[in-house]
Specification:
By secondary structure, this protein is an alpha+beta fold. It has a domain at 27-103. It has helices spanning 9-22, 91-103; strands at residues 29-33, 41-44, 52-55, 57-58, 69-72. Strand 2 (41-44) and strand 3 form a beta hairpin. It is flat, with a radius of gyration of 17 Å. The chain binds zinc ion. The site of zinc ion has 3 residues, from helix 1. Zinc ion (ZN) is lined by residues 17, 21, 27.
């Protein structure tokens, strides 16, 4: 079975971003922080990969209101229109596979490897 997500560019990006949420991925952006620092962070549990913490960067998208600050990350879960899929977005797959194998009595290292 093939599943295609198509539409004008901003709609396509929004749809694939929302598919990420259905898999449990968090937003990697905020447009309503009251302070410029510290920048917000997001930590991905790595199973057999090291945990990975993302520190969001100042966003090119204006904050939600005057006096607030906006941040995002250069990934499909962070920056509008960005289609980067860093390996940490797939760490949950390793966690689930490791649990499935453990339920079957198999002890294995399960890592997501970027290519
Ligand atoms: Zn989102």
């Amino acid at each position: 079975m093939n599943f295609f997500v198509q539409g004008p560019s901003s709609i396509s990006w929004t749809m694939i971003h929302e598919v990420g949420h259905t898999l449990g991925l968090p937003d990697e952006y905020t447009y309503n922080r009251s302070a410029a620092s510290p920048a917000p962070t997001c930590t991905y549990k790595g199973a057999d990969n090291p945990d990975k913490s993302i520190t969001l960067s100042a966003s090119r998208i204006p904050p939600a209101a005057v006096g607030q600050h906006s941040f995002d990350n250069a990934s499909v879960m962070g920056e509008s229109g960005n289609t980067n899929y860093p390996d940490n977005l797939f760490y949950w797959v390793a966690i689930e596979v490791k649990k499935i194998l453990a339920d079957e009595g198999v002890s294995a290292d399960v890592k997501i490897v970027a290519r």
